[in-house]
Amino acid sequence: MLFKGKNILEEFKEFAIKGNMIDIAVGVIIGSAFNQVIDVMVKKVIMPPLSLLIDGINFIDKKIILRHALKKGDKIIKEEVYIGYGELLTVLLNFLIISFTVFIVIRVFNKLRKNAEDTRNKQVSTPKNIELLSDLKLLLQEQNALLKDKSNDNR
After folding, report:
1. Contact 83, 63 (CB under 8 A)
2. 55 vs 57: CA distance, rounded Å
3. Are strands 64-67 and 81-83 parallel, antiparallel or unpaired?
4. Interval 90-110 mean pLDDT
5. Do the beta carbons of residue 61 and residue 49 sit within 8 Å?
6. φ/ψ bin of 146: left (φ > 0), alpha (ψ from -120 to 50), beta (otherwise)
């Protein structure tokens, strides 16, 4: 039986409280907000200067016509057959711009995180767990130095 043992509501409560669902929800919310940041950055910061550079060239309508449409009066007998390379170029260009923008944003975040994790950097507050690990590392280095000195003295 599918619902043997625990009550389904108890099982759902346990699932939700353990953090699985909360972690997923937080990830979706942050992802959505991050998507909005990237969208605005691309549309309002990167695209205007790029539009000036390419001077209004629109690739989306570019195509190679394999067969023209056949018409009889106002009625289309056979549709036009074409390769729409312009739309592909537009999508690839958008992908490159968006991926480069994401790269730059992630690079800035990583630099900020690296600064926060550097215990010697006093301008940025270091998280407590990083400070404790750094202190442990220093203590181990001191202990190893003392042990090396002691072993050198015994020789």
Report:
1. yes
2. 6
3. antiparallel
4. 87
5. no
6. alpha
Residues 6+ positions from 61 with CB-CB distance below 8 Å:
86
Q: Are 7 and 14 in contact (CB under 8 A)?
A: no
Structure tokens at 64: 């190679």
- Tokens for 94, please give them: 């958008």
Residues 45/37, Cβ–Cβ less than 8 Å: no
Sign of the torsion angle spanned by Cα atoms 143, 146, 152, 155: negative
pLDDT tens by residue, 57-99: 777 788 999 999 898 888 888 999 999 888 888 888 888 888 8
Nearest CA among 139, 106, 147, 142 for reference residue 131: 139
SS3 of residue 72 by DSSP: strand
Tokens of 17: 């409280």
pTM of structure: 0.51
